[in-house]
Amino acid sequence: MNVPDEKTGASQGPVREQGEERADYSANPFPASRVPGEDAGLRLDLGLARLWPRHSRSRLQGWIREGRVRIDGEIVREPRRKLRGGESVALDEAPDERALSSRPEAIALNVVHRDEAIIVIDKPAGLVVHPGSGNWSGTLQNALLHHDPALEGIPRAGIVHRLDKDTSGLMVVARTLEAQTDLVRQLAARAVKRYYYALARGIVERGGTVDAPIGRHPTQRTKMAVAGKGKPARTHYRVIERFADCTLIECALETGRTHQIRVHLASIGHPLVGDPVYGGGAGRVPAGPPFSRQALHARRLGLIHPATGKPMSWKSEPPEDMAELIAAVRRQALEARAEEGEDSGRDRDGRRARADGPEIIRVRGDGGGWSGDGDGDDESE
């Protein structure tokens, strides 16, 4: 790929790109360039694509429409404008996208608990936690800085762990450096208890543990995978309720790797309902009901308070979209059972079923105890 000389626009020779979109993050890539005479008659966006080949044509069109491109000192907003050759073309500087990550933004948050040391929030699906490539604003970090300006003095606005963009549920945020240090140490010592509701594709017969290292996918670098040279990862899971073609389970994290639950459940043949990334290779299990995101919710959170030393825990019910999904598959399971005419009171595997619907194994309180039918799991956490 060639890049233009900053003064003449002439090619300097091939330059290797460093990262997928890294070149496009530049706020002011080039000073004024001169349109070559041979480009006379080209559309502006095509001419700029020749002058600045490191940038995609669609991005250049966006910059033109934003009013950032000047021809002979005048702002031009029409990508179709014809060039005559010899013009001076300049790109106005834009705000540094990375600087946006530290700006407060008035984004609504559901604050479950707040005291002098910590904040516990119930994150909605769709909210990115940390600023990063393509998401320098509109994140949880921006929202926290608005709700608690003092967090500006804490690294990452007090964030000590994260949830995927499309995963909902409970997160803890530190309000002091001391609290942040303590929470990070608790996470490293696996003292923070995190439990998730997950709707998995197919019928999960019993609970268990997935103990498999997770690392970057060898060929698809935006994905994670079970990898022999990855970092240790362990997920415990228990069956909560079985439906016709999917199973509601609760997962307990012993470690906190990127996409851990999604990767581990996919590795045992039960990817999450709605997961667009890790559900593609599970052709042997039912697709499950349609859902616009991965069906995963951080339902319970437990930790030792950094200031008082007392154990604390919180619980969050699934958000409306996931609650409606669970209710829908429960109704379908009941209807299917009624159509099968199971007068014997037993399920398709010959086991005794509850009179009011599918077999259920219930969680007892926040202490982690479990109760259920006789074939439920009794493994410790």
Our estimate of the beta-strand percent is 15-25%
What count of helical segments does DSSP give?
6
Number of DSSP strand runs: 19
Radius of gyration, CA atoms, in whole angstroms: 27 Å
The largest sheet is: 9 strands, mixed
Structural class: alpha+beta
Following the backbone from N to C, one meets helices and strands in this order, namely EEEHHEEEEEHEHEEEEEEHEEHEE
Give the helix proportion (percent range): 10-25%
Separation of the first and last Cα atoms: 54 Å
> Can you give the mean pLDDT?
82
Gross morphology = globular
Uncertain segments: 1-29, 343-381
Question: Could you explain how this protein is built, in words?
Answer:
The chain has 381 residues and is α+β, with helices and mostly antiparallel strands. Helix content is 17%, strand content 24%. It has 6 helices and 19 strands. A hairpin with a 6-residue loop joins strand 16 and strand 17. Helix 1 crosses helix 2. It is globular, with a radius of gyration of 27 Å.
List the helices and strands and how they pair.
Layout: E1 2-4, E2 11-14, E3 33-34, H1 44-51, H2 57-65, E4 69-71, E5 74-75, E6 88-91, E7 111-114, E8 118-123, H3 140-147, E9 168-174, H4 177-188, E10 193-201, E11 208-211, E12 214-216, E13 224-226, E14 234-242, E15 246-253, H5 260-267, E16 296-304, E17 311-315, H6 320-340, E18 362-364, E19 369-371
Parallel strand pairs: 9-16
Antiparallel strand pairs: 1-2, 3-6, 4-5, 4-6, 7-8, 8-9, 10-15, 10-16, 11-14, 12-13, 14-15, 16-17, 18-19
Helix pairs in contact: 1-2
What keyword list fits this structure?
disordered C terminus; disordered N terminus; alpha+beta; 19 strands; 6 helices; 381 residues
